[in-house]
Fold:
Amino acid sequence: MPKTRHANAVRLEFSAGSLVHANLSGAAFTGDWLWVAGDEACGLDRLRRLDPVGDELLRFGEVRDFPLSDLLDLPGAPDEEADLEGMAVVGDWLWVVGSHGLKRRNARPDRSDADNARRLAKVSLDSNRRLLARLPLEFDAQGVPSLVREASDGRRALRLKGDRQDNLLTLALAKDPHFGPYMALPGKDNGFDIEGLAVDGNRLLLGLRGPVLRGWSALLEIAVETRTDHLRLAPLDEQDTRIRKHFLQLDGLGIRDLHFSGDDLYILAGPTMVLNGDIRVFKWPGARQHLAANREPVRGEAARTESGPRPHGRGTNRAEALCDVPAALCGGRPQWLVLYDAPGPDRRDGEFTVFGDLLRHQGPSVGTGTGAGAIAAPPGESMPENARPPPEVSWLSSRSGCAAGSQAPRRSNRPAVSVG
Structure:
């Protein structure tokens, strides 16, 4: 008999040959179908909703792999790790982003001190990590979604233009005063590391796990457009700004995932480096409207905590993915799905089945900057006393961004967005 968990558990059943089955880092739904990404694969998995087990609410299985090499001409080898860290479904498109970061080899207990010292000195880049792609979804006569290289209506899978070393995003950031110095540092050393993606039309938000600068976490806002066989960075405004930077106070945590709910942006945040620590959910109220109206290339934003720390273990059970569950799958009640990297024994059933969690929330707020969208603890958990808004923050704003001639921000007394 399969092992069962409490009623807010979500069972994901993979197979021995699945591209993804343990280190989950991204999730998105299309109806009854769940898409997941992992940070050690070069592809995506699709799972179908199945009848639940015991008291569990949701179960997904019958996995199918979608290797990225079948969909795109990749910058690296077909089997080279893409370190996919963010995913979003918007309309008939599925967007994915890799970490874009370097990696450092780790020490091993079976190696000598001298060998481990050499390993720790080695930094490398897997070219497929520098991937930002838009993939067409196509549905068959039964409504089953698939990812295709080219859809019947002419939509094509495209990635941001680049080669084995760089793409247009990393080239634009190379001389940036905030992030340029961190492009040569491995992600797990507080170097440049993308781990969140949210999409609003042709505007994308990229959440950075690192660097965190004096406690300020960062979102990068970009727009993309199709040019022949690639995506390119598009101007965000008449000043030809290609990247806007939004700095947030998230208690010193880096961004692990992003998700729009109505006009609000929810942010899953955790430690930047290889640490065991709080993993929390924050809300930026009214973010969608604010982003549409903003013309400042560098902004400091306010967010407020909507839940306490998510459970985590020592080196295990690190929450990495957050997405809305379709209302039809959970009795019309607004729920988040949270998935975990390095699931521990309590989140496994055998070698190829893992468990995520459902979190209740109050639903999206539309046309308002505050109020709705609060997260409630799942059954059996209580909200901690420290789940409260931080004080309003102020910021240094500037009209210099990542366009040509970018400079460091200058001081301004204008306050950031108030969280109420």
About this structure: Helices lie at 113-120, 168-173, 287-293. Residues 84 and 350 are 25 Å apart (CA to CA). The longest strand covers residues 216-227.
